[in-house]
Amino acid sequence: MAITDRDLELLDDLFNGRADIQHQTSERFAEDLKDIIRDMVTAYKEAKEDANYLQEDSEMAEKHIKKLESMLDRRKVRYKKWEDRYL
Fold it and tell me: Residue 37's closest CA among 15, 22, 4?
């Protein structure tokens, strides 16, 4: 299950004091829970950003490979396509 933008908005409200978590017996429990959630959201955002960078790099590499293949085709060079080697 992915975290939606709405989830992140609600969590932002929690972290900025516009919303609160309460526990019947312990205020510290609620603060610990907020800290855990904050760490999880931070890790999620970092992982999502890393995934976006990897996707961009993959797309750029694929474009570069196609460009090199077309250059070799124009020069009538024999080569094995990368799909044949790695797929």
Answer: 15
CA dist 14 and 41 (Å) reads 12
The answer to whether 3 and 45 are in contact (CB under 8 A) is: no
Cα–Cα dist 77/71, whole Å: 9
φ, ψ (nearest 5 deg) of residue 54 = -65, -40
For the chain of 87 residues, list the mean pLDDT of each consecutive stretch of 10: 81 84 82 87 91 94 91 85 65
Residue 82: the pLDDT is 63
Confidence at residue 58, expressed as pLDDT on a 0 to 100 scale = 94
Two tokens, residue 60: 């750029």
| Residue 44 CB burial class (10 angstroms; 0-12, 13-18, ≥19) | middle
